[in-house]
Amino acid sequence: MMKHSLIAAGLCLLSLLGMIQPALADASRIKDIASLQSGRDNQLIGYGLIVGLQGSGDSLRSSPFTEQSMRAMLQNLGISTQGGQSSAKNTAAVMVTSNLPPFASPGSRIDVTVSSLGDATSLRGGTLIMTSLTGADGQIYAVAQGSVIVSGFSAQGQAASVTEGVTTAGRVPNGAIIERELPSKFKDSVNLVLQLRNPDFSTAVRIADVVNRFTGPKYGAPVAEPRDAQEVVVQKPKNADLTRLMAEIENLVVETDTPAKVVVNERTGTVVIGADVKVSRVAVSYGTLTVQVTETPQIIQPEPFSNGETAVQPQTDISVMKEGSNVAILNGPDLRTLVAGLNSIGVKPDGIIAILQGIKSAGALQAELVIQ
Question: Left if phi > 0, otherwise alpha if psi is -120 to 50, otherwise beta: which for 364?
């Protein structure tokens, strides 16, 4: 009963969401639904060492690249390591990754993520030493160094151990300093290219229309043109500043449009139904069949002073229970009606998933069914 009440509450919440006016639910600023093509992130990567671990680092025999990196680092610092072999496990080799934000200037800081490359058991308490971060073009754009913060922890004794989270990966907040800026300049562009995060032809056309209605009276001509379902190109007017133009455009409000979808995650039992999902008139019956088999063998003893033997007599009890089996007629012209119809059957999430798949197979679901 508790599970059915939770499901009913969740479906009722969806029905309340369906009652929201589309104009209020679908109106968004351009900055929230599109990004600037020249304003994208760039990925950085590097290889480094973390020192100061309390015996939880790489074992140098199993991770020879860690020992090679240690020797190279010490030689660069003027320390000879010839003839010596270390068995300490206070160092770990890591891959360092980060994202270079758009329009980042030299001297600003960014976060970095470190991930163990060898057989280290924990990076807690370690310090990342100076590591250069390069881009896809091989140029160094940032240098990272600092204390590593690990959210997970592990404890181990002689007979038991406990681990929570991941201890072989962590972050260095503001650990990288940007040393080189990107070669392209924002104000060198001749136009603005807006890329929709959820490509849709209707939304792209509406963005262009809204931008043209704003720029027409102000600059004397329409400047926006939808290129396809994802890109809208805005030409720079001659007497306009590109930064100020982008600031004005990104705050314009547009009514978005998306295709009707039903997203189903069978592993977690999650069902997400879009606002535009419709179901043609269809009858649905759902019932759960449970078969329980119970084995209760009995021991049979022979009569006294007889030559009989003790025997085991099997005894099996089988019970069959069927729950539900209600028949409901679904006709969902909108989200509220569809949710009310599913709620009237009172099934579990896995049952709703099976019903939606059956409705799709019957051709009555007027939406795309995405199964994750």
Answer: alpha
135: containing domain: 42-178
Q: Round to whole Å and give the CA distance between 190 and 184.
A: 12
> Residues 143, 198: one domain?
no
Same domain, 119 and 191: no
Give the containing element (helix H, strand E) for 141.
strand 140-147
Write out pLDDT tens, residues 167-192: 889 999 999 999 988 776 776 777 88
Contact 184, 137 (CB under 8 A): no
> How many domains, the chain?
3
Closest C-alpha to 101, from 182, 160, 3 = 182
Q: How many CB atoms lie within 10 A of CB 121?
A: 19
Pair type for strands 27-29 and 278-295: unpaired
Mean pLDDT score across all residues of the chain? 79
Whether residue 16 is contained in a domain is answered as: no
Q: Are 368 and 281 in contact (CB under 8 A)?
A: no
Shared-domain flag, residues 35 and 49: no
> Which among 334, 241, 351, 315 has a CA at the least distance from the CA of 8?
351
Question: Has residue 17 been placed in a domain?
Answer: no
Decide the pairing of beta strands 298-300 and 311-313.
antiparallel
Q: Which tens digit of pLDDT belongs to each residue from 196-226?
A: 998 899 999 999 999 999 988 888 888 899 9
